[in-house]
Amino acid sequence: MNKKMLAAGSRDEYGETLKEKQEIEQTIINVLNDQGYIPVSTPLIEQENVFDQYQEKKVFHLLDHMGEKLVLRPDLTLPIARFLAANQTTSTVTRLYYLGDVFHQIVNLSGDYNQETQAGIEIISEQSFEAEIEALETMLAFAQRFGIVDVQVVLSDARLIDLILGQFDLDDRIRIEMKQAIEEKNISRFEQLKAQIPDFPAELANWPLAFGENGESAMEKLRRIPAVKEIMDDWVRLADYTHLHYPDVAVTVDLAAVSPQPYYTGTIVRGFVPSLGDYLFSGGRYDRLLSKADQETVPAMGMALKVETVLADRQRDLSSLSAQDPIVVVLAKGRVEQDVRPLLKKAGVDTSQLDNPARKLVFDTADNRYRFILVKANDVVKYLDQGIGDVGIVGSDTIAEQEQNHYDVLDLQTGKAEFVLAACEDFEPEKISRLRIATKYPKLASQYFHDQGEDVELIKLEGSVELGPITGLADGIIDITQTGRTLVENHLQIFDRVGPVATHFLVRKGSLLQYQDELTTVIKRLANLVAPKEEVKE
Q1: Which tens digit of pLDDT belongs to each residue from 57-86?
Q2: C-alpha torsion angle, residues 25, 31, 36, 39 (rounded to 10)
């Protein structure tokens, strides 16, 4: 019998693990039935237009026998909104619950699963803030029932960044780029944009890192803005409720959070489990997704619980919760590691174990605060996004060619070079109908020529790209240069400068919350070290 292979990212479930998952699901069903929530089930396959408002476009696309565009659902709120609109069941307060699988396309060979099970509630036609309290109470009660002891509630709001930026006189470009830099925790880009805004408030000087204690301290100073004060008053209500009924649950805020989906219109609540580095639940208010027959919008609040996270928590050794794992820094071997070591040391990170590495590849600091893993540059992001690493340090040339599932926090200003378009002296692109470009960086090159409005043939090379024009394989190249010497030696000239290259400091998204105090301190120190001298902060 031929071996039957699973599709990439899929898995079989079997035996004791499946039984345990079924027990979790049955508990959820029993609790929500007892609480009067109405079950609703939607199909795995939906019309593509149901997900027009879905932020993540990495969905599985299908065609039916009539050629209609379909998708495997990546989200359960939007199908329920479709169900409610079709059945006109939005006139009175309705409490629904669902339990089912969602599907996301994943990065090839990443090891991630494209299928996960979610259980969630939707509270329809409830305008008052009682809906947020009820949804959070339901999720915290599940966390308590399943014995998840270190859940942390993180509060944010889909309106907040726009409301604060609205206090400044900004053109659309700067406003959009500033919001993107804040949400992506990109300190380097944020600093560049901040310098263009006169009288930028000191309390938001580190806005991309304004979460946890940093967010709470900035929060009090922002309450002078009436619309922001209203949001934060609601946060206080949720915090007070949590502290009263779940005193062991920590509550914090994130003033720099990206809205998980564009249909959210207000409060966003997440439940983070630091020891797992993952979210247990998340959701928010979406008051403009549903509408009545007369087109009047219908308020709604929804929250989803990740069943696999509950299962992962139940299957681990709880004694590990008392141990503080080190922050794992994945470093590109060679020049990158050598260049950034002095910076890390000045930022308070003990790098002494790297001074005489011999043939070792893993190093722990004496105080067990950090663990360094030395890998090839192309593997840094893989270690990071697979949860092995918390911090990744690698060149932006490597980052540009890989899928991103982390925060690109800081340009460390080391290993500087640039991407260039180079060719022989007689290069006349306007006379060539379709350019052939040799490069090691097809993703970056494709984006560059797309921005130029040019259709080119890209030839991926692994070796000496300079040979492309010399041998006639290609008309030109896109490659990295520091001094330009190699180009000159091969009789090539620079025709355009595509973009800068430098070493970047990356952080896995979960790690930034899991180790927020230590990492934000290090990031701030590094930002001060690499800032222009006149911008250095005391």
Answers
A1: 678 889 888 889 999 999 999 999 899 888
A2: 0
